[in-house]
Design brief:
alpha/beta; 18 strands
């Protein structure tokens, strides 16, 4: 049996060809002393053949594996030893069920698992010669039965079986089996919509797998990817799977490889990479077909259909073949008892028919659908709401269309409320983007009246920057996350020193990226939820808070740019022309400001760049602000998309005008209403700054008492400590956006980086933070205008006002601007007034914005 044991170990790593060779060698060795009527000989041979059947099903076809198992049953039934018969029947039934589960035939697996558990219970009564192995096998059967119930949507039965399994595993010290069950509990919480809890269990399983069974990590990556897709983090799915796909392809674990390709195809679809999505969905479907996994093949066909629909949606017309194909696939999925997937296919068919103008056919398709169940994925719920809303709009029933859109966004809000960490909270917006866009289009069809403007304002506040609606949870201090962040900080410091010394950095970079990803995953569930959701701001609340000031909320529908303006007790909607034109001018202005930032540019080059910047600023001013002339008082601006990159003080109409930029009116209202506390003032200087920008001693002269942190005192711990409870913290330190992971945007301090991740540890957020030496304003924008980055983390964490640069800024202009700013601030001016005055001296060279309140 040594050959059998070695074969099983090799099979766990996915090397099935080698496993099969060893198993055949074991059979040949056994046959040299047989055939025999000896019960131990029969027992050994049957066990080898069971393992061979599973290996053949994994590397070849399901039918071949099941056929081999069927051949074993008569010989086992002829055995007179009840203990051995129960043991082998349990093994055959359990492996038969496992093969069916792997192929998506969950309902068929339940009776087999019931039988396997009954045989094992009988064996426990009779007494086993290897009770540890028997208990391990019992836990496996309970866990598999839990998995099958889970896949069938029977959450309570799944939970009962998995909890029985993990209790037995813990009682008997079976660590690897406990890791498996934690993995499955992650699946359970994923299906029930609790993404943070799912990710928590996956994280615990990963910790155990790294020590006990690294061969399980690829499977775990697939299931983690499902959770990330549910959370809208398609970019993380891509990174998660691109790491393991080559390994899977080398090991030829066909089922896992096909599932990984399917998850990666789904992520590509979410990222609008349709060619990659089509390629991977087709590859996955071929692999499933070869294995005989008809249910999985149909799911892969559904992803392929969605890719083709996305491509067709961009055209002028929908081919008749697409809704027909969707309906046929729905029938196939129903036959396979994949009811959620079948409902999704029918919903797609109905939406296609609406687009083609066949409202009667669309109505029939939708009326045949059952209500979504408690475990129906949020993405599917949103698609159904969207299709119903589009159908209602198509027949002229605007009231029902709005009702469906509102209900869908409420569903999304309920899902968002269960998320943990900013990344998850903000990423869910992708699921509601089309529904929000439809609501905006429907509002615009109603004209430009005050009632339409009020309705538009309401929809914008329900669909944009929702992560800022939450009252942050203070003092999140997960010890494991703190330790990881500390390790990342040290690695970053070592990496920086290695670069300066000219030493190799490949291993350090790899470790740094690995630890970042580990911290990010842990941060997803460091808190069970980000915070308590606030109600959406109403027009009357905003007007009351504005007083004599004005708020401008920009939005886009198609290529139409508009502004909802709240001022002087009234609301109006103003159309502002082409969104593409505004985007181009905003991005060109941003590029020009970056190019002219260095302190000592040659004069001719500086003049050429500044002329271009003035031209694009003038174009933006003419398009965005001049049609809104006549607004009094200070301005609150809620940008959209590329307009977040605009430092508004560079527009002639806004020169010397106090302007505050907020992610939403709800966020502005919350920041404005936060209590003003009389905390301390801290001035921080990071390493590697020029003399000009590092002159915090000069700034200290503006305040009677201020704490100065510079040199060896400017550590991440001291700076984080200074932020807690402060009235004002000025930080002059180099900083950098992390485009692929906003919470790792950072400020460079003497001992390494201070990450946005760490701001959740603050017990009392500072009232105001000034980021003087880096471009860290809100210019990482996700779907739904979810503005992330270091400044975004500060605002979402409860900081009232953040002053930061919207583009690069030279050291000398930044230092001069900050001196002017703090002089005005110390004399009693509000942040927006102080910044407006400071910027007016040289707007193009001082591109700062006042964010929040």
């Amino acid at each position: 049996m040594d050959l059998h044991r070695r074969a099983v170990e090799i099979g766990h790593t996915g090397r099935f060809t080698q496993e099969i060779q060893l198993l055949r060698q074991a059979l040949a060795t056994l046959d040299t002393v047989g055939p025999s009527d000896d019960v131990d000989w029969v027992r050994a041979r049957v066990r080898i053949l069971i393992t061979l059947a599973f290996a053949e099903a994994e590397s070849g076809t399901l039918a071949r594996g099941l056929a081999r198992l069927a051949q074993l049953r008569p010989a086992v039934q002829r055995l007179t030893d009840e203990r051995v018969r129960a043991e082998l029947n349990a093994a055959i039934d359990g492996n038969h069920a496992g093969m069916l589960i792997r192929s998506g035939r969950y309902e068929e697996s339940i009776p087999l698992l019931d039988s396997a558990v009954a045989h094992k219970e009988r064996l426990l009564e009779l007494g086993s010669d290897d009770p540890g192995r028997l208990m391990d096998s019992m836990i496996a059967s309970l866990a598999n039965r839990g998995q099958a119930f889970l896949e069938m949507g029977q959450i309570e039965s799944a939970f009962i079986n998995l909890n029985m399994a993990i209790t037995l595993g813990l009682d008997h010290g079976l660590s690897m089996r406990v890791a498996y069950v934690r993995h499955q509990l992650g699946d359970l919480y994923l299906r029930s919509g609790d993404i943070p809890q799912a990710l928590r269990y996956y994280q615990e399983a990963e910790r155990d797998y790294l020590e006990l069974g690294p061969f399980m990590l690829p499977r775990l990556r697939i299931d983690q990817s499902q959770a990330l897709i549910a959370a809208g983090l398609a970019d993380e799915v891509a990174k998660n799977l691109d790491d393991v796909l080559p390994q899977m392809q080398a090991e030829r674990v066909q089922q896992d490889l096909a599932e990984a390709e399917l998850m990666r195809a789904t992520a590509a679809l979410m990222e609008d990479n349709l060619s990659l999505g089509r390629k991977l969905a087709s590859s996955a479907r071929r692999r499933f077909k070869r294995r005989g996994s008809d249910a999985w093949a149909a799911v892969a066909a559904l992803i392929g259909l969605r890719v083709d629909i996305a491509r067709a949606w961009r055209g002028a017309r929908i081919p008749v073949s697409l809704p027909t194909r969707a309906s046929q696939l729905a029938d196939e999925l129903t036959t396979l008892r994949l009811m959620d997937e079948a409902a999704l296919a029918r919903t797609l068919a109905a939406r296609l028919e609406v687009r083609r103008g066949n409202v009667t056919e669309a109505t029939m398709l939708l009326s045949a659908l059952r209500r979504p169940g408690p475990v129906t994925p949020i993405e599917q719920r949103m698609l159904l709401r969207l299709t119903r809303a589009e159908l209602a709009a198509a027949v002229g029933n605007r009231r029902r269309a709005f009702s469906q859109a509102r209900a869908g966004l409420n569903d999304l809000g309920n899902a968002r409320d269960r998320m943990g960490g900013l990344e998850l909270v903000s990423a869910t917006a992708i699921h509601g983007q089309q529904l929000g866009d439809l609501a905006v289009r429907l509002v615009l069809d109603g004209g430009d009246s005050a009632a339409v403007a009020r309705r538009m304002f309401g929809w914008l506040e329900q669909t944009r920057a929702q992560m800022y609606r939450y009252e942050p949870v203070s003092g999140i201090d997960d010890p494991q996350l703190v330790e990881l962040i500390g390790e990342i900080r040290n690695l970053g410091y070592a990496l920086r020193q290695a670069k300066l010394d000219g030493r190799p950095t490949t291993k350090l970079r790899s470790r740094y990226a690995d630890r970042q990803r580990a911290a990010m995953r842990l941060g997803w569930h460091a808190a069970s939820q980000w915070g308590k959701p606030r109600p959406v701001a109403t027009v009357s609340e905003v007007l009351a808070r504005l007083g004599s000031n004005a708020l401008i909320s920009f939005t886009v529908s198609g290529d139409a740019l508009m502004a909802v303006v709240l001022a002087q007790g009234r609301v109006r909607l103003v159309r502002l022309g082409s969104a593409a034109q505004a985007t181009e001018n905003a991005m060109r202005l941003h590029a020009d400001l970056n190019a002219m930032a260095p302190d000592f540019l040659p004069e001719p080059l500086f003049e050429a760049i500044s002329a271009s910047a003035r031209k694009h600023a003038a174009a933006l001013d003419a398009q965005l602000m001049r049609p809104l002339a006549g607004l009094n008082g200070d301005l609150v601006i809620v940008p959209t998309g590329s307009l977040y990159a605009v430092p508004w003080g560079v527009l002639d109409s806004l020169r010397s005008r106090p302007v505050v930029v907020a992610p939403s009116a709800t966020a502005w209202l919350a920041a404005s209403a936060s209590p003003v506390h009389s905390g301390h003032t801290a001035l921080v200087r990071g390493p590697g700054l020029s003399a000009a920008i590092g002159e915090i001693d000069k700034l200290a002269a503006h305040y009677e008492k201020a704490t100065l942190l510079a040199g060896e005192d400017a550590t991440s711990f001291r700076v984080l400590e200074s932020l807690d409870g402060a009235s004002l913290v000025h930080i002059a330190a180099h900083g950098e956006h992390e485009a692929e992971n906003a919470l790792f945007s950072r400020l460079e301090l003497v001992d390494g980086a201070l990450f946005a991740h760490e701001l959740a540890r603050l017990r009392q957020p500072p009232r105001q933070v000034v980021l003087a030496a880096c471009e860290l304003a809100l210019n990482r924008i996700r779907p739904g205008d979810e503005a992330l980055g270091f400044a975004g983390a500060l605002l979402a964490g409860g900081v009232g006002t953040v002053v930061a640069a919207a583009s690069r800024v030279g050291d000398q202009p930044a230092a001069a601007a900050m001196d002017d700013y703090h002089r005005a601030l110390a004399s009693g001016a509000s942040p927006a007034v102080a910044l407006a005055d400071a910027m007016a001296v040289d707007p193009l060279r001082r591109p700062f914005v006042c964010l929040g309140s």
